[in-house]
Amino acid sequence: QFIQAEPASRVGLIQALARMTDHTELRELHRLHSDGQSRYTYFLLAAAGAAMGYALQKLDGLPLTRDVSLGLMAVAFWLASFLCGCKRISWVHSSIYANYALLQLQHGLHPEQPPHPQALEAAMAGTQSAIRRNVGTARIYYRLQFWLLALGVIAFVAWRVVEMWRLANAP
Fold first, then answer.
1. By C-alpha distance, which of 64, 122, 69, 127 is closest to 98?
2. For 94-110, how does the pLDDT look when each residue is reduced to its tens digit (9 = 90+)?
3. b vs e for 17-48, b when ≥16 Cβ sit within 10 Å of the residue's Cβ?
């Protein structure tokens, strides 16, 4: 249940929303950027999933020897990339929720709105800190997702080259 905002803060909220509608280009650019990042994350998730499936098909039936270690390493990198992509999505959603809570606090609409200005400042500072941490963690997972996918590709290609060399030089 929301605490009823004072008429002055309702006016402030309406004014803030009106100012945002004046910057449609900024909102559109932000939306495009956010959509692009989400699509990229999901693309990398799909690439990691497909790569794991292909590699596991190639590894199927082979004995667990040193010869397949690079192939197994590639699968492990791709699995880690997939998990990092899932974690990134989770941290982005946590950031969005924290941003929502901060906006509620700023406009006096939070369900647990602090009654005193000092408590409100502390709540807002804590929420801003949480947003920074969430965004930083999401950024780390974003980078790890790509680099682990790339390391998987390198390991898989190396495994296939070593395997071709081994077969060409077999007695």
1. 127
2. 999 999 999 999 888 88
3. eeeeeeeeeeeeeeeeeeeeeeeebeebbebb
